[in-house]
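Following up on my earlier message about 2-keto-D-gluconic acid. Here are the inputs again, as you asked, copied directly from the submission form:
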Amino acid sequence: MPAPDVIVTAPLPPFLYDPLKADYRCHDYYQSSHKPGLLAAEASRIRGLVQGGGPVTPAELLDKLPKLEIISVFGVGYDGVPVDYCRKRGLKVTNTPDVLTDDVADVAVGLVLMTGRGFAKAERFVRAGEWEKKGPELTTKLGGRTVGILGLGRIGKAIAHRLEAMGMRIAYTGRKAQPGVHYRFVPDLKALAAESDFLVVACPGGPATKNLVNADVLAALGSKGTIVNIARGSIVDEPALVRALQDGTIGGAGLDVFADEPHVPKPLLAMDNVVLLPHVGSATNETRKAMGDLCKANLDAWFAGKPLLTLIPELA
Ligand code: 8YV
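Thanks, got it. Here's what our run produced:
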């Protein structure tokens, strides 16, 4: 059988792209300087699509791929996939859950430490030679403080587990209370924010959660509260967040994700109470390799007529 044709709409690391190229006829839509030409020549043969977690694959592109069978997402988040469209067309959508849970949770803990204990600021203080002149600022003890987690899925649970081990108190919100967890469920996000010192955003992105953390939620978090986001920039109303930080409505922010990556709102860059990371949640060699292996394994399984290793819950 000839190798199936696969279109690639995201930048892929060599440890995924090289093995893909070995087993599939890959068409690099992401890098192509003549996308209409690529589609005119190849669209009618394409059976698979590989994309990243965040950036959206428009339904208009999928419409141009009449033989498409499967979208394999290199990431756990599939907010970049038009899920309803895929359901109607009977397209399979796979992602890479579990393998990145620990790394993403580590980043959330890092952001709690960097913001709460002021480590990012303290590090700048040393580099600037300030320590030669005066002692560092005192910060606030983390043990005993409350962390509210928005989204107690696999990643949210791993975050809770870590922060609990640091002596922090955990509460959470989501669509429903989770069976078998001892953390306190608070049905209302605003109420959770009001009682949290740190509000950690760990739910999926996409239309259902767009701007869920709005100006009201930030006001409830309050001037001593810090927001940490390791999920998707779209979940937080970013202009409202910038305003809340500017006028002291909230105390600080630790952000790994942004609404329009890699663009970070300019005012955030100048703020001392904000820690900014370039979406590094899953960015370790081990995890990205495991994600790449799973992304390809799903395609391999599909084209070999074997059961998929993962399938997004909406299509299961
Ligand atoms: C990746 C992510 O940066 O898994 C996700 O949903 O956001 C990250 O792990 C991204 O998917 C790489 O394409």
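One observation from looking it over: The radius of gyration is 21 Å. Hope that helps, and feel free to reply on this thread.
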